[in-house]
Every structure is written in structure tokens, then in C-alpha cells.
């Protein structure tokens, strides 16, 4: 997809959905920046070779992405409050090559994800996006709290991936006002390390209202009731916290 040289944009466009479109990052940046009223952007399966995505949308409120990239940067996105990120990463990549791109350190990277995460009230992320965030290393907590974040959804979360676990804990520790936490853990089998992870979440989230855990393993083995019984026995820092246990398939 190429924009005409005289492209002036769409002055009244509120929503942009691009699905399976081959477009250069520079063209995408131009397209979005020329739509000043955009509130909703959904990018699905774009060019897999994009090195960097730059989103320039001053009126943007919701951003959804499904695909892969090496770096993402938001400009003039002070109104952005909701984000959904489903990221795919080549499992053969050597993550040592990303040592200079610590997403959690704004001074070490030209990505401003830290700043953007700090203004979100809703964040949905799959496990590989967590791995993307963690590729430069993960600290105990973020430099600044995610004070506005009330709803966090982590899907296709793999407990076997230490980077995902560390990143998830870092986000949770940095979200003091978290009210709803949904975690879909692939291959959750109720082993002691997994249950200790959940116990830690419940003991740390003081404003939590809902913890939703999905496990397809429980459905196959019939151990869902036993897992749920142990889960509800854990102490909770928030008296309003509810535990919802499901058996959905992992994506």
C-alpha cells in the first residue's frame, strides 16, 4: 500500500482498521498523522519486516496491535488510555543482541513505551509482548508507577518463560491501583511454583477486585476443582478480590 504524493489525509476519520496490509512504516506513520481526529487504531498482521513503528496521533484513545515489530514509539499520544498488544517474536532470535534496548529504561531506548504505559487505564498483552518488553532486562519495579492502570489482562502467558514471569510481576508491582487482573496461563498444571506465583499476586495487589485464571490443562485432566479449592484458600491483600477459574484454550 502506497499513499499518493498529494495525500492530505482524512480530516474526519475516527477509526482506522488495517488487516493484512503491506505498508512501509514511513507510509503508515504518514497515514495516521494525516488523520487528526483518529480515536481508534487497529493494526492486524502488517508487514512482518517492519523495524520500527511510529504512531503519531494526538487524539488517539485506543490502540490495538496484532503482529511483530522490533521497536514501537508513540508521539503526541497523551489521550491514549487503552492498549491491546498481541506480539509475535521469532523464537530463534538471540535476545543478547537487544542488550542496548532496555524498554524499562527510557534513557536506554528510543521507545517511549514506559511513558505510554504510565497513562493507560487498560492494558491487554500476550506473553510474547511481555517477552518483548523484557528483552533488555527487567527491574523489580518500573521507574514510575502505573498509577492509572486499573485493568490488566495477560493472555497466552507461559509460566515456563522466566522473562514473561519477571515482566508480569514487574508490571503488577508497579500498578498500585490495579482492580482487575486477568491471567490466562498456558499449560497451568497447579504445580507448587505456579501456585506460589498466584499466591504472591493475591498478597501484593491491595486494590484487586478480580483475578481470572484460565487453564486448558484442568479441563483435560479434571483437576479444575482441586486447583480452585487451593486457589480460594490463599490470603488476599484486597478484601474485594474475587477468583474466577476457567478452562479456555490457549491462543
TrEMBL record:
<dbReference type="InterPro" id="IPR032675">
    <property type="entry name" value="LRR_dom_sf"/>
</dbReference>
<dbReference type="InterPro" id="IPR006566">
    <property type="entry name" value="FBD"/>
</dbReference>
<dbReference type="Pfam" id="PF24758">
    <property type="entry name" value="LRR_At5g56370"/>
</dbReference>
<protein>
    <recommendedName>
        <fullName>FBD domain-containing protein</fullName>
    </recommendedName>
</protein>
<dbReference type="InterPro" id="IPR050232">
    <property type="entry name" value="FBL13/AtMIF1-like"/>
</dbReference>
<feature type="domain" description="FBD">
    <location>
        <begin position="170"/>
        <end position="246"/>
    </location>
</feature>
<dbReference type="InterPro" id="IPR055411">
    <property type="entry name" value="LRR_FXL15/At3g58940/PEG3-like"/>
</dbReference>
